[in-house]
Design a protein that fits this description.
It is built from 13 helices and no strands. The protein has 313 residues and is mostly helical.
Length: 313
């Protein structure tokens, strides 16, 4: 494998959102650019939610504040980087090697005037198929959540977790959106954002966990993409559970360590659109964006420190 091409899957996974990272890693494996173990390591942390969804949809539309979206996005990136470093030990003793011959670029993948139309049409069709697949999974799991709600099964499942939440002194109203988010990301976050609570920091921490895990819907999207290869999805599931947990911990620490993020002292929920407007006085969004760019740049440098070297086989 090129010791550096994984950075491409990582960066594109962050920029484009689900399930682009998984699709790129799968293409690496199909083209023989990485071993099975290397593909599983990449899959564990390169398939992430994008800035448009976290900052735009969750931060602005659902929670009513861009800065909270930036905080969620930064902790999302930090958590997936940590998972990436943890998974460097996944099947570390795997003996499969990739030769330079198997990693050579096919002449069909090189864009020329003679095959430009074919490449463009193939790219468009692949994009359309991916968009339709994502939409289909979202609709399917939205229906499943609706059936669970109307049948009362979701309420029964929530009651199982009541003692745990009461023991941890957490509002039990967070159980329903958390379970829904574990099933389907968008629906769970939407339900979570409608909860009227004074402990807004807890709400954001749960939102961070749901964003990190991604939900069963995204996991099945990844499975549908990787099913054409020998990549196991077990590493992905473990990685996303770790990422959700780490993201929630990081979000909780950031909110409670830095006074400017003490959200529980800010008057909120008078309106969804103006929940956290008081924070805009204290936090400069441009500083948050600069910090985010520094994190992405540093990560890119780390992953490319030995780029363009082959394993000899």
């Amino acid at each position: 494998m090129y010791l550096g091409i994984g950075a491409y899957a990582f960066i594109m996974g962050i920029i484009s959102g689900y399930p682009v990272g998984a699709k790129i890693v799968t293409e690496f494996r199909k083209n023989g650019d990485c071993s099975k173990a290397e593909a599983e390591r990449l899959l564990a942390f390169t398939n992430n939610s994008g800035p448009l969804f976290i900052i735009g949809t969750v931060g602005v539309s659902m929670l009513g504040n861009t800065l909270i979206g930036l905080v969620l996005f930064i902790t999302h990136i930090l958590s997936c980087i940590i998972v990436g470093f943890l998974f460097r030990f996944w099947k570390y003793r795997d003996t499969e090697f990739i030769s330079s011959k198997s990693s050579s670029v096919s002449s069909k993948s090189i864009a020329t005037f003679s095959n430009l139309g074919e490449i463009l049409s193939t790219s468009i069709m692949n994009s359309v198929n991916t968009v339709v697949m994502i939409g289909g999974f979202v609709i399917l799991f939205s229906v499943i959540i609706s059936i669970l709600n109307n049948s009362g099964l979701l309420d029964i499942l929530c009651k199982v977790f009541y003692p745990i939440f009461n023991m941890l002194n957490i509002d039990t109203r967070f159980i329903n959106p958390t379970i829904s988010g574990l099933v389907e990301l968008t629906n769970g976050l939407n339900i979570l954002a409608t909860i009227n609570t004074k402990s807004f920091s807890t709400l954001i921490t749960f939102a961070s966990f749901i964003l990190g895990f991604g939900g069963i819907s995204v996991a099945l999207q990844v499975l549908s993409i990787t099913s054409k290869t020998d990549i196991s999805i077990s590493a992905y599931i473990i990685g996303k559970l770790l990422q959700g947990t780490i993201a929630a911990i990081l979000t909780y620490l950031i909110i409670h360590i830095f006074p400017i993020f003490n959200l529980d002292l800010v008057p909120i929920f008078s309106n969804n659109v103006n929940k956290l407007s008081a924070l805009n006085t204290y936090i400069n969004p441009y500083n948050m964006i600069i910090l985010l760019l520094i994190i992405i740049t540093a990560t890119f440098i780390i992953f490319n420190r030995k780029k363009y070297k082959f394993y000899k086989g």
